[in-house]
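Give me C-alpha cells for this 379-residue protein.
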Amino acid sequence: MEDNQKDVIKRLYELVAINSQTLHGNEEIINLLESWFGDYEHSVEEWVRDVDEVKGKNLVVKIPGYRSDHSIVFVCHMDTVPTSSAWETDPFNLEEIEGNLYGLGTCDTKGGVAALIEAVFTLPDKPNFDTYILFDGDEEEFSTGALKFKKKMHFKNPHFIFLEPTDGQLHIAQRGLLKFNIITHGTATHASQATPLKNAKGNAIYKMGKIIELLSEDAEVVAKEEDSYMGSNTQNFGVISGGTARNVFADKATLTIDRRLLPTRDPRKEFERLKELIVSKISDTDVLLEDTEPSFSTSENSEFVQKVLKYYRKVIPTSSIAAFPAWSEAGLFREYGDVVIMGPGSLAGQAHKANEFVSAQDLFHFVHIFQNIMREIRL
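Here you go.
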C-alpha cells in the first residue's frame, strides 16, 4: 500500500472515531478539521437547530488557485445517521475487512471527505481555480448548516460538487421532496352503527381509506410524467395509525405521505393542490405540511458537467451521468451555479444501514478524481 493510501485511511479512521450523529452535533469533528487546515485561509460559523437546540459549526476552507474568475466549491456534510444495536463491528472504530472499510459514516460521507482532504494535501501544485470546501452539518435532518451558510455565501461564478455516494457515476439531478401529514376526525360510537353512510360521516379510518384512494389515483396520473435520468414522480404512504378498539368507530386517524417530485412540479404548489383535492372531498380533515425540499437539474451539456465527467473517466472509465435517487443539499444551491453530486460508495446497500462500509479502492480512486478536477479543469 502506498503512503498516500495509508494516509487517507488514517484520516478516515480519525473522522469515524468522532461521534457526529445528527442529534449529537458536529462541533468536535469540525474542530478536528480546523486543526488540519490551520495553514489555510478558513472561517468558522456556529449554528443552533431551532427544533431542539443541537449545536454545530460550519467550516469554510479556501485553497487559492491560479485564477479567481471561477470558483470550485466542494460541499461536505459531517453529520451521520444514528447508529443502532444491529452493528456487528464498533461503528466508531474503523475496521478493514476484505478491502472494505467499516464504520459509521464511512460511505455517507466521511470516506469522500477523507479522499478530498488527501487530494488537497498531496496536490503537487495550486488548483487551476480558487477552490473552497464547505464542511457543514445537520444534512440528515434539517440542513441547518447549509441554510445558514447560504445567507452569507459569496463566490465568484461558483460550480458546486456535493459529496455523496454515487456508485461510480456523476449525478446531475435529483427530485424534490414533499412531506405532509393527514389527520381525519370522526365520532366514537359503537361498531354496530357502522352503516356505509355513518362510516362516511363519522369513522376516521373509513375517511382515511377514501383519502388513500384519492391520493393513489392522483399519483397514477402524475407518475406518467417522466425524466430520462430521474424517473417519475412517486408517492409513499409511510405511517398510518388510528382507532382504539375493534368494536368502536375510530375518532381519529393519521397518515404520513412522502412524494418525490420532478423539477416540473414545485413541492409547495403540489401541497396546496393536494390539500384542496382532499378537503373538497372529505370533511373534518386536516392536511398539514411537514416539509418541502427543492429539486435540481443541471444540463448534461453544461461545460462543467462534461469536463468533470472527463476527469472522472480518467480514473473510472465506466462512469456515466445519472440522477441522485435520494435528496441531498445540492438542491439548495441550484440557483447559484452548476451543481453535481459525486463520491465514493453506493447509496444502495452501503449507506444508512448497520455495518456501513466503503471500498478502500473507491477512496483511492477519488483522491485522483478530485485532484484531476482541481488541477485540470478549464472553464
